[in-house]
Amino acid sequence: MSNVFQNTSTVTVLQGDYKVTTDPKVVFSTVLGSCIAACIYDEQVGVGGMNHFLLASSAGSGGVSARYGVHAMELLINGIMKKGALRSNLKAKVFGGAKMSANLSDIGANNADFVQRFLRDEGIPVISSSVGGTSARRVRFHACSGAAQQTHVADDRRLGEEERAAVARTQAAPARKPAAADNVTLF
User: Fold this and answer.
1) In degrees rounded to 5, what are phi and psi of residue 136?
2) pLDDT of 63-97, one tens digit each?
3) What are the distances in angstroms from CA 44 to CA 48, 124, 142?
4) Cα dist from 31 to 34, 43, 76, 102, whole Å
5) What phi and psi, each to the nearest 5 degrees, are found at residue 86?
6) Are 63 and 83 in contact (CB under 8 A)?
7) Angstrom distance (rounded) from CA 179 to CA 66
8) What pTM did the predictor assign?
9) Rounded distance, CA 41 to CA 21, Å?
10) H-assigned helices in 26-149
11) Is the pLDDT assigned to residue 163 strictly greater than 60?
């Protein structure tokens, strides 16, 4: 399965973003600390995607943004379905949720618990997951086949500092309201 990563173009999925493709030449990539990447796919149709969310919920801030788990999951699943996936074929792989700082609450564990519960409630089986621990991960995902690769990041101290700053910015800034053209169906 590792040969699906050869001769491909890499598309980076940043915090608060999601990507969907039917192109077998595209591989999604992201680096995670306490954040979560849900990789959801329908290998029979050849479509899939990855999200990268920062926090499980907006904690009462009223935020509707892909920075938050529920919205990120809804956007990803709807995006995959719009590309022709059958809900009954969807499978997931989940990564991230590390405890990046002893000085912060365990945001990673909260994120991991959220995504596992969300997928279970939605009836989407989690085929594999790598969550928790104390180190960052780089994840590559071939969305059309569901193949995934993970490597642990050796020097993740800077990532932990960046995540603390991102959490602070997210909690301080109001979330962007979706444009009318976003047209997302929540289920």
Assistant:
1) -75, 160
2) 555 666 888 999 999 999 999 999 999 999 999 99
3) 10, 15, 14
4) 10, 24, 18, 20
5) -95, 130
6) no
7) 13
8) 0.80
9) 10
10) 69-82, 107-122
11) no
> Residue 101 is which amino acid?
S
Q: Return the number of other C-beta atoms located less than 10 Å from residue 176's C-beta.
A: 12
pLDDT at 179: 44
Q: Minimal CA–CA distance to 148: which of 31, 39, 26, 11?
A: 39
For residue 45, give the 3-state DSSP assignment.
coil
* Alpha-carbon span 57 to 62, nearest angstrom: 9
Contact, 109 vs 96, CB < 8 A? no
Q: How many residues belong to the chain? A: 187
CA dihedral 150→152→156→161, nearest 10 degrees, is 40
Which amino acid belongs to residue 141? F
CA angle 72, 76, 82 (to 5 degrees): 145
DSSP code, position 29: E
> What is the residue whose two structure tokens read 């047209």?
183
Return the structure tokens found at 7.
């001769």
Q: What is the phi-psi region of residue 132: left when phi exceeds 0, alpha when psi lies from -120 to 50, beta otherwise?
A: left
CA 147, CA 2: separation in Å to the nearest integer?
Answer: 7
**Domains of the chain, with CATH numbers?**
2-169 (3.30.1330.200)
**Token pair of 2 as six digits:** 């590792």
